[in-house]
Structure formats: structure tokens, C-alpha cells
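Appendix B, example 12.
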Amino acid sequence: MDLEKQPQQPVAPAGPAPAGIRASDADRDRIADILREAMAEGRLTAEEHAERVDLVYRAKTVGELEPLVQDLPAPGGTARQGSPAYGAEGAAGPAENLVAVFSSSTRRGRWRVGGRTNAFALFGSVEIDLTEALFGQRLTVVNATSLFGSVEIKVPENISLRGSGTGIFGNFEVDTLESADPEAPVVVVNGYSVFGNVEAKPKRGKLITNLHRQLRKHLGH
């Protein structure tokens, strides 16, 4: 058989350009981590960092994200200095974004909290009150960034609260709390503040009642 006379197989059409793919929460978090490292190394000023982070959480496609870090080196393979981020792998599902730029943003009352929440305050304030929230999963991660602003997180007294972050000419404070119940929800607060404040603490007198029944109900058991 003469292979040269065989018709060529049709070439499958190329898929959509990566730049046109819709950005995921993981894509946004990856770019935000690069920006945070760049500011810590002095490659970006606080103002430049704030502008780019705001664009990160507004971006809809990967193509909108990549230009924000084109002039920055890729993150190294070694672990970052400082405390590790807890819970980064455990929170699945879409993230809720709370952004306050020269304004305020509040989330409180009876609401179903997701696995991950991104809070960003620039000359503004974000308040997240979880004392009456319904936890649909055991692990909830809050990524908090404060630039000349404040992010405040309140949790019930009978859950576990953990965190890891940095204050640069600012305050990052998590009042660590370990529940006596090993099945209680865990809230992890990661992030940093620059000339600002990030604070997470239990709200005295606020408890999740019927803890086991609520958790089983919202996990579908």
C-alpha cells in the first residue's frame, strides 16, 4: 500500500485559547499569591498591589489574570518563609467575594457559609459574622487581605478557629480556638494586612445549638 497516496487524516480543530478560558477561584488565588509574594519582596508598592488584587477578583477569564503578573517572576519551588497557610486544600466549591474599596461590606445573620470566602478591604471595612451562619461543610477558609482598611471575622464559641497571616505595619490577629467536639466546624483565616487590621475572634455568648444535628442535616446525612 502506497502510504503517500492515502488521504491525510483531518486535523482536529484547536481548542479555545487558554486566555479565553473562564477563570476559576484557584486561578485567582494563584495570581493573588504571586502578587502577595512580590509585594513582600519589594517588587510592588502597596498601592500597586492593591490595584492589581482588585483586578484579580474582578477578572472573568485567564487572559485577564496573566497580564497582572507578566512583569513578575514565577514563584519559586521552595516554601515561603513564615507560617504555612492552613486549609488551602480542604475547601472546595465556589468562593464568595466580599470587596470593600473606600466602602464597607458586611455578611451576617442566617446564611449558608461556603467552603471559601475572599475578603478584600482597601481603605474600607469588611465584617463577616458567622455566629448565626449555617455551615454546609466542616472546613471553612477565609482569605483576608486588608490594605489601609479592616477585616473582622466573628465566630461562635463552640467551633474551632485557626489562622495564619502577616501584619506589615498593621495587625493580623486570630484568637485561636479549639472546640471540645472533634466534629465541630473549623474556620481557618489566612491572609495579611498592610497598614490595616485583620482580626478573627469568637463572639462571647454565641453558640451553635444542636451542633451535630445541624452538621448532618447540611451535609445530607
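The longest strand covers residues 139-147. The radius of gyration is 21 Å.
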